[in-house]
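Q: Okay, next protein. This is Helix-turn-helix transcriptional regulator from Streptomyces mooreae. I've checked the sequence twice, so it should be correct. Can you predict the 3D structure?
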Amino acid sequence: MPPRRAVTGRSQEPRQRFVEELRLLRAKKGVSLRQVGEALGWDWSLFGKMEGGQTIGSPEVAQALDQYYGTKDLLLTLWELAAGDPKQFKERYRRYMTLEAEALSLWHYGVSLLPGMLQTDGYARVVLAAGGTKGEELTRDVEARVGRRKLLLGEDAPPFRTILSEAVLRTSLEDAEEWRKQLENLAEAAARPNVTLHVLPHDSGLHGLVSTDVMFLRLLDDRTVAYTENAHRGELIEETSSVERLQRAYDAVRDLALSPAESRKFVMRMLEEVPCERSI
């Protein structure tokens, strides 16, 4: 049996549906892109790129458009769906991203980078650009990564525990202000009731995850899967004995790490060390 078509005839693919609604709403209102830009205070070319599918903008832009068109939270909802759509990610991440969105709880260890769902726009852009991503692909990938932050928000957000090697927090951005924003974002995230942050000090010594970034996902069927990653590739691990071996290593690392209270103080001390911009 062929797949059923939507009754409205509109696309059911999140990003395309978002684009179609933007075009339809502007046509109904009978305004130009330039008029939209003037009304909302953004360069009109941004709205042209959004209607062309080159970018989905930010949640703030979607919310402003909802107010402008009188559509309540329609565009913001479509933006969230488009930002979290696994089809935005490269093939090797797609299955993992689908499972991540469904996970009942998440445990993470980072030896080199902050986890994507705790990254600011500025941090994500630097990381992705350093890996060779550029142009429109860079814009799309930043939006996709930033969209993952919503997983940790709301009353039904899953518990998330992250252990960060001190090296992650000592590898700052060149732009001091962007680094300040990232540390502030991390401190704010750690204060949420569903987020637990540990910092693993430099002097903790060698351990079973010394060169491995890993995320564990507990799924609806009570299975736990693991995703390991380095600079060149990622691997989804579902075989039970392999996952259990990684979990034992993770538990040992957690025993070496600072407590959540001590870890948050560590982040706050690092914030104090960020140089302030000189006033001119």
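A: Here is a summary of the prediction. The radius of gyration is 21 Å. Residues 1-7 have pLDDT under 50 and may be disordered.
Q: Noted. On to the next one.
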